[in-house]
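Q: My collaborator sent me two sequences in one message, no labels, and asked for predicted structures for both. Can we handle them in order? The first one she listed is below.
A: Yes, handling them in the order given. First sequence, followed by its structure tokens:
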Amino acid sequence: MKRLDQLTSTRFIALLLVLFYHAGGGVYFSLINVFPISALLRAAPTGVSYLYVLSGFVMSLVYFRPKEKFNIAGYWTARFLRIYPLYIISFLLICYYYIDFVARVKPQKILANIFVLQAWIPTYAQSFNYASWSMTVEFFFYAVFPFFTIWAYRQSTKRLVWFSLVLWALSQLIYYILWIGYYPEYRYFIVYFPLFHLNSFIMGAVGGIWFLRIGQEQVFKPVTNLLILSGSVLLAAAYTIASNVFTQLPHNLQPMAGLLAPILTLIIVSLALDKTYLSTFLNFPVLVALGETSYALYILHVPILWIYERALENSALVNPQLIFDYTFLPLMIAVGLLSHYYIDRPLRSWLKQILKHISMPLLVLDLVIIAVSVYVSFNFRFDGRKELLSYRSTALLMFWSAFFLRTIFSIVFNALNPASLYGSFQQLARPVLISVTTGSCAVTGIIFAGYFLGKFENFPRSVFMMDWILVFTLSLAVRYLFRFFKFHNLHPNPV
């Protein structure tokens, strides 16, 4: 169907609220920092909720096709490619910012961030890039959406609307009880746990289904639709302002859990139906381009904020804070545009080609094998806890080196290609043998370099041999299991 670019433009407005909330907005915020406008400018939690509702709405527009079979694997791959490249770049930028401390961070915290699981673990929810917790929420939405959509194919629109409203009401009731009884003691669980945000996404998805089934076929007077749109916007704005005055009402972070989701859904649906000059204005190419860069702005603004602040503080400039206040917002918009068009898009295209020859389940299992192998090798080689602790730094370096290098070599030597599972034994085992051996040599070389430079007291050669045997044996066994159970359902053609 035709793109609704007027919705795309609104993403940038929501992202401006987030930038004002996290970075202050500098002089651009202070120029309009007068009540009641100031209350609206600090409504980033509602802005995040709006983005969740909009995400559900757009997902339905693109993927709700009752006459077609839902390609779950294709959907997940597409969403992974849309989110992950810039996500991992933002994570690496934060690691650069914390370069002096990152080696001492618990591996499980780093892994939770690499695998976008941090919001499921309350103590990790705000670790590294604190804004990236919402990517855990988005990935949860993407995991749920195909199954919700397949179920929704068989449901009437009326039933879906009632389902979304009941889910929203129950979610708000449970959330309010938890907030009153357990905030701030369980702040990170209550604010960031993905389940609490599902109601926003589902309501948006149902709004999209209504639009496809009923809304776009209806003839609405432009004035009537504009009245619904403006009334919904005014209602959301009035609540935001009132909750800043009467703090007994849910305010600040509370609305982020979907409190205003029904109103936000009305805004999105009525804007999708709008055919007035408002949509013409929001369809202006510059605004659409800014809307398309919203994800880049969101995921990169925290590391850019921290790195830029540090650079200014360490400079010889007379008033670094004043320079920051004037330059950060335009700098961030420029970074967002450049990242979207010259980093994110090319990376997605490149990864799309790479993923055609990669089995994601095999990749995940190979990463598990790497972790198991390092753990078993060191525990088998060293008996006492004291001796094990003395090799902790060596084990950590070995794990992280293997985590990245073995993955790279598996891709380079085609060891993750599902087509190789159905060739001869030589065709199956050769890429595994080459990638595992090359990875072991590289990891051993890194550890030896650390030992040679005096970073480690010993060089445990037997550990590397055990690690090679374990990784090769387990990797081969996993591939035979995939082949035996025909996991990828490929024809047994030689590679």
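Q: And the one she listed second?
A: Here it is, processed independently of the first:
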Amino acid sequence: MAPRFFCTLLLAGSLLFAGPHPLVKGVDSIGLTVSDLDRSVEFYSSVLDFQKVSETEVDGENYEHLTGVFGLRMRTARMRLGEEYIELTEFVAPRGRPAPVDARSNDRWFQHIAIIVSDMDRAYQWLREHKVQHASPGPQLLPAWNPSAGGIRAFYFRDPDGHPLELLWFPPDKGNPKWHVTRDGLFLGIDHTAVVISETGASLTFYRDRLGMEVAGESENYGPEQERLNNVFGARLHITALRAASGPGIEFLEYLAPRDGRPFPPEEKSNDLIHWQTRFLGISVDDATQTLRNSRSAFVSTGAVELPDGKAGFRKAVTVRDPDGHAIQIVER
């Protein structure tokens, strides 16, 4: 996600606009599909200091209706870093497709989480010791000419299934003030999840005007540091940072150049390894479902789905896609 960031922009404190009838009140977690849950839990816990807080295994009709995957059995681990959460899901059956080996950061199925570190040099060395796969050649120092990004350090890498991840370090004048509170630990929490989009206006209509998130800042980022961070030659991005009342932010990465990123595969399913899912805490799942149907959003679930067994941690949910195909889920506890 990088560029963006300058993200960070993010916390300037002036919110530019919010929709009149918000459907969500916070971001609960970021989910991703993995091929081997035990391996992924070990990676995120031993390499990145996440703590596993729960693990569940489910099957049945209600979960099939929620995920759009028939005949499923899935295992999910909820993991915490600081105050933020991810959920790792392995589909025991049916197995989905692997990620394309030639995926690039400007393909529109790209999504990552930005993990804040207290010391970039130490964090990078730690990843090297654990032989983590690079996506950038090394940490990049964003240039001073960009007032929103100057002084930020960032690095892209991959988890065992190839999911892109980012390390971020903020100088004292950038980022959420909570990242500058003195605390123990090298890996502090998740600042945001970033998604590649095709057109900022359409994404704002969905996330701001429909869901009710608020714009926290925007920036245009380019230059050799940005190109190496994203590993995309000639990268020039328009970045927009959004926030809900709680949880990580969402950043739009619109590639102004190059424009050759591939669209989200229309046949993508929740059990495929390119699948990410941003979960929102909703106000009313039924109201959200009706609003999203009226706006012709693409549904992953069959509609609002009840989950009476209590295993999921919420009682009702709906899963849809944003204008570029990224999955979002709205839940009621």
